[in-house]
Amino acid sequence: MLATTGCGGAFASSARASTVLILGDSLSAEYGLRRASGWVALLETKLKLEKPNVEVVNASISGDTTSGGRSRLGSLLSLHKPGVVVIELGGNDALRGLPLAMTQENLSAMTQAAQQAGARVLLLGMQVPPNYGKDYSQRFAQMYADVARTQKAAWVRFFLKGVADVPDNSALFQADRIHPTELAQPLLLANVWPEIKRLLP
Q1: Domain with 21 in it: what CATH number?
Q2: Number of domains the chain is built from
Q3: What is the reported pLDDT for 7?
C-alpha cells in the first residue's frame, strides 16, 4: 500500500479522539455480505483488541455518492464528534458518469469540514476499470492524491489493492464483479489499518 499522511490540523477540544467515523458506500456497508463480516466490522474487532477505547461509527450507505456524503457529513460530525474520519466515496460518482471536478470538490469540502471539526481525515482512493479509458482512469485515481496533498490529509492509494488488481480474482468478487466477497474483507482492512492506526492517538 502506498500512502502519505498528514495531521489535518490539531484536534479541536470538541472532537472525540476515540471515535472513528466511516463515511462510505456499499463497499463499506456490507452489501451482499453477512452481517458483521465486512471490513468495518473487522476493524471494530481489531480495535477492541489493540485500542479498546476506540469506537467505530459506520455511516456508510449503499449507492452513496460524494454529494450524498457531503450532505450528510455535517450532522454526523455534530452527533459523533469523531477524531478520525475515513472517507470511502467516489466510485458511484464514476459509475454515474458525474463530472470529476464535482467529485473532487465534494471530497475537498468533506475533508475540510472534518478537519475544521477537529478530526484527522483518511481518504480511500479508488480506481475505475480500463474500459473508462486511460485518460479518465488516470485522472480519477490522481484526484484522491490531489485532494490529500492539498488538504494535508492521509490517503490510501487504492482501497481495493490486492483484490481488484490481481489475476484470477473471481473468488474475491460477488457475481456483479463490483462488490468484494467476504473472503476479500480482510484484504481491504489490511490496506486501511496502517493508516487508521497512525491517525489514532
Answers
A1: 3.40.50.1110
A2: 1
A3: 41
